[in-house]
TrEMBL record, chains A, B:
Residues 24-170 form the Casparian strip membrane protein domain. It comes from Linum trigynum. It is found in: Cell membrane. Belongs to the Casparian strip membrane proteins (CASP) family. This is CASP-like protein. Its main location: membrane. It is a multi-pass membrane protein. It holds the Pfam family CASP_dom. Keywords: Cell membrane, Membrane, Transmembrane, Transmembrane helix. It comes from the Eukaryota.
């Protein structure tokens, strides 16, 4: 890129200002997306963690009761969502810093690194959760696993609903990484 | 970064050559990692897709037989791994292009965009598969799902083993995205 440098120096001033404006726009969008992701993953974690259902009938020995931590995968789902929402909250100051200093480079690289790791964690939690939710709804005749949703109706609705916020978070991360990459390339 | 440009122009030539060398090194590492990822995900897909076990005993009506597509999640696992290994293969030419032209920018951005999407797809497939493999091994007493691995021993070993290549692919993607981001930032 060395050969281009004199050309860049000779650019009209308006072009440079416009470029900085685009980068500031990207940084503001980054901030808003992080807020959306924070709300989505936090509500997912809370929704899953507070789910429990006790059936109205019981035998002498057993009360039929379903809680999220009956299935270890859902515990992982809650942990992943809680960790990611905490990360979203912690990354907000760095995002504000990017809005204020649109030419910042290192802060963007740090964000890409952590965003990628968190994308992997959240996707893992969401899809493991989705696999078990699917099994709860449909069961599997070959493995002789029955669909527990036939008994635990409202429990199943809650756990299905809590997947939404989690996938919102995954989408947010993908868009965030693309935005950061394009902002880095625009320097 | 405009203010820095004259300083960059005044750099000794050796420094520029060294910088290009680092970028070429990153591009070569990128190529090797893609090969590793290709082998990992392809072997995962093949290993899972060719898994089946027929138990040596049977009743008049039923032969006990386990195949990967008895569980829809494993079908998704195979599809995700096959798609990602095809992507790895297709991205090799672009990776070679990056080795030859170390200052290329657009090709790196294209790779980051697709890498991120494929990371999400592969992580989803791997962790959904892992959730079901865990269930097959341990079962769940609360949901009354029995551990099928007590009967289908070699089937379970194969499906557990095929997770490895898949997670190798996930790790490769994370490193690839970090390498591309650092290469973009180095321009």
């Amino acid at each position: 890129m060395k050969a281009d440098a004199p050309v860049v120096l000779g650019e009209p001033k308006g072009y440079t200002a416009q470029k900085a404006g685009v980068k500031r726009g990207i940084a503001i969008l980054d901030f808003i997306l992080r807020l959306v992701g924070f709300i989505g993953t936090l509500s997912s974690a809370i929704m899953m963690a507070t789910t429990n259902e006790t059936l109205p009938f019981f035998t002498q020995f057993i009360r039929f009761r379903a809680e999220y931590n009956d299935l270890p995968t859902f515990t992982f789902f809650v942990v992943a969502n809680a960790a990611v929402s905490a990360y979203f909250l912690l990354s907000l100051p760095l995002s504000i810093f990017n809005i204020l200093r649109s030419s910042a480079k290192n802060s963007r690289i740090i964000l890409i690194i952590f965003d990628t790791g968190m994308l992997a964690l959240l996707t893992a939690g969401s899809s493991a959760g989705a696999a078990i939710v699917y099994l709860a709804h449909r069961g599997n005749t070959k493995a002789n696993w029955l669909a527990i949703c036939q008994q635990f109706n409202s429990f199943c609705e809650r756990i299905s609903g809590s997947l939404i916020g989690s996938y919102v978070g995954v989408t947010v991360f993908i868009v965030l990484i693309l935005l950061s990459a394009s902002a880095l390339a625009r320097r």
